[in-house]
């Protein structure tokens, strides 16, 4: 009897093991979460963002921004304090990005001006491009298709092509297609679409380097959807782990913010 | 072509399209990025520019044309003396013909000079001359309590320029911050009772003629960050202020700025040397409220309604205009110091278009309309920047009957060409 019971138990265990997949395939949303983790550290940090804008192959604008970012413990989205380092005419101007609570401060006029999400301060780059964004917070990945794609270094990579749709009102874009490397969850490319289905821009994530122990993209190349010779290159440097007190992430701290 | 040929062609296309290839445009963009040098601009303690301007204006009445020229040097310096201790200096020198300020051809404005201590992440003190500016409205700021006497050399009628090119008040300021809110307290003592019109004077009396104190409390509530203010000034009643902004949608910001307190009319205050004290002290409200809408191509449109409870109603304003010239002149002169509206109601419209028509070209238009006398001002600017240089062409027109808010401006229209170099 005892051996019979043991046999039954072993049979049941074998059935369970057979029924369980070796390893569940990650869901599209899990792939998106993993790719967010590649782009963004999971602690407050500071970096320098150098933006250069080209039109028809010629440089038209250049800005350097010092940025502190910290994720909101409640929703997970990043809040950012931004200070212009260059050009000289914009030096020391400040921007606070806290979801849709966005403020611009000019130390010359001492004016704190509330911005609407549609107000872009940096040429073609949207506010969401400039500051740190967790896509998984604002978008739902509804499908993942495996295919080969060419990355920003013109190498063919096996990717998940994720289809993201806006999941809350904070989302900047209606729909995004994002290519994420199957091997390591690195985001390689994304296409951003308007509600009418128009391609707004294409972005390449490239120049992967070890940052805080993880290979992260240190350059984003943005190509306008309508005028393909309108290109913005954003380079990230001077990554530093920084404590950002909650009290700093408000309009009244902006005039005092100075990255070290 | 044979069917086999068509199939082979289609197969070739399919193979070429195989992996999701970057387009030629993408390849070109990536090649452009490959060539970008790895330079990172370093932060500087200085932000300075020199600006030269020349223009002309048409005098009302005889149509005579008067030329003008100006040279300005503007410096801003910010330096960390030690962790948590910073010094700020901002200064501006205007050299002009005709004289930019009260008969002086060279006017220096020490805008700011103060030391800041950050005792903790949430506690700061500042001491020195500080340009404090409250208010969320665009054209008229009832809660901008420290603007009185602050403009030494009015080089532009642009509200942004009037806020930028002015001197601060000497004060001690403390600020405490917490998650989503802050409390600021400041005290600005009376240091000199009279303003000093000398061009190179520090002119402490212009902005520190009376003891003043301010409390400002902000607290984020949902998507809103209302601000409450309590301002007290020696020999005047306490004033209360309120600032609020909110998003109506992703493209529209609405704002409301209010200040209220007991006071006499502006006319009684301005003419107290000429007339006996009036029995007109009562609660008066000042309000500025508007909307800013931004289009996807970076055009921002602002419409603002302005109400000044201390200003004159149309009938009283007309009576003053038609009365003794000395009283009218005294009233207008006093308002130039306080930067208040002469009448009760006005409308302000503004359009700002960034990267208009071509990259790096910014266009701006402002329209002020006084609702008491229907006089108006139209101001337009085209500003283009290349690297460290900015060029601007400004044009202004004042229209209205004689003695009206804008009809009394000596110049009916004028223009100015500016070149600014940042170094």
Can you give a write-up of this model?
The complex is a heterodimer of chains A (about 260) and B (about 425). Chain A is mainly beta. Chain A has helices at about 1-20, 30-40, 125-130, 135-140, and strands spanning about 45-55, 60-70, 80-85, 95-100, 100-105, 110-115, 140-150, 155-165, 175-180, 185-195, 200-210, 215-225, 230-240. In chain A, strands 6-5-4-3-2-1-13-12-11-10-9-8-7 form a 13-stranded antiparallel β-sheet. Chain B has 7 helices and 18 strands. The longest helix of chain B is centred in the N-terminal third of the chain and has 15 residues, at about 5-15. Chain B folds into 2 domains: about 70-245, no CATH class; about 265-423, no CATH class. Chain B is of the alpha+beta class. In chain B, a hairpin with a 5-residue loop joins strand 9 and strand 10 (about 240-250). The radius of gyration of chain B is 27 Å and the shape is globular. Classes of the chains: A mainly beta (about 260), B alpha+beta (about 425).
Can you give me a brief rundown of this structure?
The complex is a heterodimer of chains A (260) and B (423). Chain A has 260 residues and is mainly beta. Chain A is built from four helices and 13 strands.
N-to-C series of helices and strands of chain B: HHEEEEEHEEHEEEEHEEHHEEEEE
In CATH, the architecture of chain A is: Clam
List the quaternary state of the chains.
heterodimer
Question: What is the beta-strand fraction of chain A?
Answer: over 45%
Question: Largest beta sheet of chain A: what is the strand line-up?
Answer: 6-5-4-3-2-1-13-12-11-10-9-8-7
Helix content of chain B: 10-25%
């Amino acid at each position: 009897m005892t051996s019979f019971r043991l046999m039954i138990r072993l049979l049941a265990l074998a059935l369970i093991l057979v029924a369980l997949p070796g390893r569940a395939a990650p869901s599209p949303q899990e792939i998106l979460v993993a790719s967010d983790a590649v782009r963004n550290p999971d602690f407050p940090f500071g970096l320098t963002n150098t933006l250069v804008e080209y039109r028809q192959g010629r440089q038209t604008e250049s800005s350097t921004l010092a940025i502190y970012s910290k994720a909101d413990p409640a929703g997970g989205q990043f809040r950012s304090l931004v200070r212009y380092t260059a050009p000289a005419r914009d030096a020391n101007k400040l921007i606070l990005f806290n979801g849709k609570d966005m403020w611009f401060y000019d130390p010359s006029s001492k004016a704190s001006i509330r911005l609407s999400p549609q107000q872009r301060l940096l040429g073609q780059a949207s506010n969401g491009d400039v500051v740190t964004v967790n896509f998984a917070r604002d978008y739902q990945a509804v499908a993942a298709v495996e295919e080969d794609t060419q990355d920003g270094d013109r190498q063919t990579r096996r990717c998940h092509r994720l289809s993201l749709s806006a999941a809350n009102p904070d989302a900047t874009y209606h729909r995004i297609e994002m290519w994420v490397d199957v091997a390591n969850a690195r985001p390689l490319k994304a296409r951003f679409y308007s509600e009418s289905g128009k391609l707004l821009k294409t972005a390449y994530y490239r120049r992967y380097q070890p940052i805080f122990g993880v290979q992260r993209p240190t350059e984003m190349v943005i190509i306008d959807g309508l005028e393909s010779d309108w290109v913005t290159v954003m380079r990230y440097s001077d990554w530093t782990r920084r404590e950002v007190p909650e009290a700093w992430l408000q309009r009244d701290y902006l005039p005092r913010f100075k990255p070290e | 072509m044979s069917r086999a040929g068509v199939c082979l062609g289609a197969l070739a296309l399919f193979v070429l399209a195989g992996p999701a290839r970057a387009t030629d445009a993408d390849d070109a963009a990536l090649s452009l990025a490959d060539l970008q040098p790895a330079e990172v601009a370093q932060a500087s303690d200085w932000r300075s520019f020199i600006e030269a301007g020349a223009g002309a204006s048409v005098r009302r009445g005889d149509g005579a044309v008067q030329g003008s020229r100006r040279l300005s040097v503007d410096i801003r310096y910010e330096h960390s003396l030690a962790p948590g201790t910073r010094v700020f200096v901002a200064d501006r020198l205007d050299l002009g013909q005709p004289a930019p300020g009260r008969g002086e051809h060279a006017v220096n404005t020490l805008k700011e000079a103060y030391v800041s201590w950050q005792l903790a992440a949430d506690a700061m003190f500042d001491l020195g001359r500080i340009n404090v500016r409250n208010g969320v409205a665009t054209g008229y700021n009832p809660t901008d309590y420290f603007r009185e006497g602050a403009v030494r050399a009015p080089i532009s009628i642009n509200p942004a320029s009037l806020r930028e090119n002015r001197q601060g008040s000497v004060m001690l300021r403390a600020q405490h911050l917490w998650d989503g809110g802050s409390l600021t307290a400041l005290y600005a003592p009376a240091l000199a009772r009279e303003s000093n019109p000398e061009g190179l004077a520090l002119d402490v009396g212009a902005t520190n003629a009376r003891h003043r104190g301010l409390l400002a409390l902000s607290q984020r509530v949902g998507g809103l960050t209302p601000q409450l203010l309590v301002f007290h000034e020696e020999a005047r009643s306490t004033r209360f202020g309120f600032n609020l902004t909110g998003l109506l949608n992703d493209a529209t910001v609405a704002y409301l700025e209010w200040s209220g307190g007991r006071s006499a009319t502006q006319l009684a205050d301005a003419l107290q040397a000429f007339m006996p004290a009036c029995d007109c002290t009562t609660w008066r409200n000042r309000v500025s409220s508007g909307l800013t809408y931004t289009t996807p191509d970076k055009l921002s449109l602002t419409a603002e309604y302005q109400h000044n409870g201390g200003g004159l109603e149309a009938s009283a304003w007309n009576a003053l205009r038609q009365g003794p010239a000395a009283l009218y002149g005294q009233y207008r002169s006093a308002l130039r110091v306080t930067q208040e509206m002469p009448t009760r109601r006005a409308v302000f419209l503004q359009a700002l278009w960034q990267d208009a028509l071509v990259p790096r070209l910014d266009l701006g238009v402002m329209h002020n309309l006084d609702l008491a006398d229907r006089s108006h001002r139209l101001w337009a600017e085209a500003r283009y920047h290349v690297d460290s240089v900015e060029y601007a062409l400004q044009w202004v027109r004042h229209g209205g009957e004689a003695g009206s808010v804008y009809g009394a401006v000596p110049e009916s229209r004028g223009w100015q060409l500016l070149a600014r170099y940042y170094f």
